[in-house]
Specification:
The chain has three helices and 17 strands. It has 288 residues and is mainly beta. The radius of gyration is 21 Å and the shape is globular.
């Protein structure tokens, strides 16, 4: 059982004895080559952040975002142990802090992600509600690119420089769906750069609340479909025994996919004065 406390004003988190009180940045930031947190397998209090995603009925999880670190090391995933539901009373936009949670960042427990796990001593504190949700952080596909080997059925990254985006809401732009039915669960698809289709990242819709229950992907995900942008929570999946070590963009809602808009005449994925200028060039062309 977990204790959820709701308070009306922003309060400091108690030290909890010898347990350190840390920001999301302090827990996530690392210089380790494999991206492992320095706080792995240690108990901490977390100053927390805004709930930007909530998922699952049985094995609930929430994603927290600290707006004080909006460009890197600003997100973290929180789970309950043993199929518990500790976040029934937690809503999107709540600022949540956590007391006495375990940091796990080792492969058999978290598959490479830095995760805060609640146990019987943990406390979830709602410090404020109705906080604005952040705009996705725009990231270049080059910075999160993966390499897929279809023969070995494996996928990997050449390094872990993208670790700083873990659990953050990110966005890639001007991408086209390439391969589908790939990945550990065959629920991944590639998002190829339009400028160079040989460079791509992976997307997945398994945490998308708008996805039809019987579907593997959102209906809009079809080979060759171009998107102005795709947004989602950035997640790592590592299972060295099966040669998986990759990052993926997890869409959370239908609006995470943006397709060309009517009136976008120059193909830059927005409708502005440049499109009006093109329209003006052809105004009344072909009329008598």
């Amino acid at each position: 059982m977990f204790l959820v406390i709701i308070v009306s004003t922003m309060l400091s988190v108690s030290a909890g004895g010898d347990i350190p009180t840390l920001s999301i940045y302090q827990i996530q930031y690392t210089t380790n080559a494999d991206g492992t947190s320095d706080w792995n397998t240690q108990k901490v209090n977390c100053e927390g952040g805004i709930v930007i995603h909530k998922w699952g009925g049985g094995r609930q999880r929430i994603v927290l975002y600290d707006p004080n670190n909006s460009s890197e090391w600003g997100g973290i995933l929180v789970k309950g142990e043993n199929n518990t539901t500790p976040f029934d009373s937690i809503n999107l936009g709540d600022w949540v802090s956590l007391d006495s949670v375990m940091v796990y960042d080792w492969l058999n427990k978290s598959r490479g992600n830095t995760i805060l796990y609640l146990d019987g001593t943990s406390t979830v504190i709602v410090l404020s509600t109705d906080n604005p949700l952040p705009e996705p952080l725009v990231v270049d596909v080059n910075d999160i690119a993966v390499v897929y080997d279809p023969v070995a059925e494996s996928c990997y990254v050449t390094d872990h420089r993208a670790e700083k985006y873990e659990a953050m809401d990110i966005q890639v732009r001007d991408v086209t769906v390439g391969d589908i039915d790939v990945g550990k669960e065959l629920d991944n698809y590639s998002l190829n750069m339009s400028a160079d289709p040989n460079i791509y990242c992976w997307g997945s819709d398994y945490m998308n609340a708008d996805k039809p229950s019987e579907a593997t992907y959102m209906p809009v995900v079809q080979p060759g479909q171009h998107f102005c942008s795709v947004s989602g929570i950035f997640e790592q999946y590592t299972n060295i025994d099966y040669y998986w070590d990759y990052y993926q963009v997890l869409t959370t809602k239908e609006d995470d996919f943006v397709i060309e808009q009517p009136g976008d005449l120059d193909g830059d994925c927005d409708v502005d004065m440049a499109d009006l200028a093109i329209l003006a060039q052809y105004w009344l062309v072909g009329t008598k």
